[in-house]
């Protein structure tokens, strides 16, 4: 194994430095000055003049903000924040009844990897999915409305589904491999019992093609390792998914050291069509209502292949012929030949078996080891077989070519890139042109804003032989992964269609009313430039109040908000939308309500009063 | 009164159209194309090349998002979101104990008008304040850390302090005039008793010059009108504050129509030094612990002057010689001469008295009526006496000059500007150069993102005779006002100073420990690249758990997060910072915790386990 021969001393040095916590490998200090011709080139390419639209949408995870960011490329302007796992008082997300239910009692999520729906391996602009690493969930955003429409989970038996979302080429499935091992049935077991009682897992989620709705399909029981990232096969490798592992040492403490001992970990290749068949054949056990397949009892589903020390990303090439493992603690990117892998499986060309999983002969399936740089994390693809790998430790992006297997160009980024994202980079036909480095550290790149720094996106022009940084923008924490889709693939609606059948909606002032049933008060109201009907709501202290509000302004961009002073209530109604809020009128007195979203020249007049009559 | 002669039919038409809800006056449809020389000029001026810093910080309110946005000018990049009134899972704001307490049980706020601290009428870069229109609060952000350090309120007796924050020239005070009238003591009164039992109010907040900490000073009881915006006098008008009114009709329903009937409303001029003296002289009543001055009983504090129909903004010129009222429902901006106003007060040149407030003779104090355009809302100032007024209804910015009193140039913006902000525009010496129009509607200006639109900022170059739009960026809802400060005036810290005296902090692995006292468990932990100490926390179901976590990586931009799976917990520790979280261990089982903020190449290894032993 080539990388075994020379990377060890270097990596030990890096790890030692990081363990000591005082070695900063990435460059720091003032940025290199761009020449005036470079600046001219950058602004010609990246500046989007007022009134013109960006060429691409970038959907970026918001990390522990819980949200999704919609960013224009090449301008890098954040067009919108889509609330997903965390509340957003700007839009009333998590405050109105529908979105409160959607959030399921959680107040945050750790949104990691967005995935656009695909048809025949190409982004189709229908939906975008994202995982929640913290609470074992996934969300679906409908790109007609850009609103979160479904959140599933917490799904039982899994813990920290970091390695999602990466959809299959026709959005049949996505795989949520877990980062953390736990007792898989949710029981209590001490860490001393880790090796025998803890497990990793993979959750397959199936997607309804019409609605985008997600359903937990089946689970795969996996060894007590950490699983990091995954990708779906395509073309010749369609039907397979690939999953990186670390901590195959099965350490429970100080993983920084104890999970960095093995020279190699694994990439798992999972035959999800075989898993589907196993479920059909009844080869599963039901645990907490989930269909769990144990690969030891259902062979032919999971195979392992050695991967250099704690690999991070795994990425399938656009043609589906290779899957590429990124070293993290090794300076190489390994390309595996899928055809050779399939042959090795057929020939039982195995070198080992770990926990019932056959280990395919590395030397039989390894196509190349590309010397990408220090800390290669992720690889994205452009046109003509070009590949772009982010090197976290040395703060570069390396360009190399499938088949040539050597680095052709490198560009220094600022600083420490995690994922990168290329235009249509996860499809069967990437566009080339743009690559965005999602840098974890910004340090001195923008006006200082105190100890809490933004992350830093850098736009790289990848059209020429030499990569060129042409734009840069700070961004709130924390984009992990992003996907970039051609703008014309998405056609959102501008207003909500008038829904005459919604029993909560009313469409005229005449229908506005307040109904009382015991201590339950229900308000049917409208918001229209620039008034609420009704604009006086009288209730008694202790009443349970429900307000249904419909925005009857069927006009683009005319949003109304509804806030009640001191009642900690705010939500919004988009044009044509009806939303509902419920609360207990537990504070007596006089409380104004008002439109919180500037809607017209008479917006300030759009107000009313809620009078809460005190108990005698 | 000049404007009385001709504006009536036009305004009636506008109002009728808006009431009907179907007249869209602002331009719509595709934007006018910029010429290639205009584009070249725009990108030369507005594009900030990678690695270069912006020239100015813009502090923008985030409206009902509850937050403050820090934006670079001229790039219009959002550098940071500072959480203020709403939780932010990205930074753990509202999750850790300190910030949870700061939020005071509220989950949102309606942040309206940021105000930078001033010394001698110039921004000094120490603090920025902002009001919460929903919950009668104000917040102070320390610009050393860019963190919210204090929130006061809800303050009793006031309701909807929309007209803040506009600090006095040495940050002695800011005035929170209320938008809504309510029974001032918080009692319950029906709307039928509005005229006799409801009141507006003004809350003066004093500011500690060393710490920036705010204290409620005194309140002014005002008529049952709506108060909209305010500004502080400076130079000759220092010691006074100006406040616009609407709904002097004292309507309680359908304000859109019923508060738009009077030909004029008022601007109130408040002598806050006289109010200070009145408090010293004991001329106040204590209501709910607040010192309330009744101007009828303490004359010489409040005066009124007529202002065209429902005025919106009021703005004091840099030299303090004029205050300018913006018409909203009248097409004019009125400039009042402060010296003449003072003389009229001295001469008792009054035309009326309303609710005990003398009304100064309009004709004696009016310096000019500038025909700005349809729906003038706010005026900002540049160099050499130039003024810039946003016209909401006609979607323009009008440039005019103090003394010349006529419009010199107009530029169409997209669409419907609310406030505008000029570089150092609220100081005694504005910089000119840049003006940002904070447009309420974006419509077709950016890639479509469904029914929920962003707002739209446009950067206008105001250096030449003709104004020129040179940059444009979408922004999440909703910037109301913003202030733009020269970048070199702010010098934030990069890390938190190591605080050896904080009893919750520990600075080495050796001090990491878990203490138990009955069912109370206290963890003293550290976060350091790339591990937590301790990394195993064993508790019993039902325990009350407190975790103090210190980030001992004293290195710029090395933030660690701390999330616990399924426990809905996430917070962060900045370099050198200690934060605390408390929760009940009410779910038995095994729960990983992990660093949520990508911190190093071994970030994925930065994890541990919380084991919650089930009750027998």
TrEMBL record, chains A, B:
Keyword match NAD: no
Higher taxonomy: Bacteria, Bacillati, Bacillota, Bacilli, Bacillales
Transmembrane segments: 6-25
InterPro entries per UniProt: CcO_II-like_C, Cupredoxin, EfeO_Cupredoxin, N2O_reductase_N, N2OR_C, Nitrous_oxide_Rdtase_Sec-dep, Nos_propeller, NosZ/Cyto_c_oxidase_sub2
Family matches, as CDD domains: N2OR_C
Gene that produces this protein: nosZ
Localization in the cell: Periplasm
Enzyme Commission number: 1.7.2.4
Entry-linked Pfam families: Cupredoxin_1, nos_propeller
Domain (Cytochrome oxidase subunit II copper A binding) ranges: 493-616
Protein name per its UniProtKB record: Nitrous-oxide reductase
Biological source species: Schinkia azotoformans LMG 9581
Alphabetically ordered keywords of this record: Copper, Membrane, Metal-binding, Oxidoreductase, Periplasm, Transmembrane, Transmembrane helix
EC main group: oxidoreductase
One GO location term (cellular component): periplasmic space
Transmembrane helix recorded as keyword: yes
Molecular-function GO terms, alphabetical: copper ion binding; cytochrome-c oxidase activity; nitrous-oxide reductase activity
Main location: periplasm
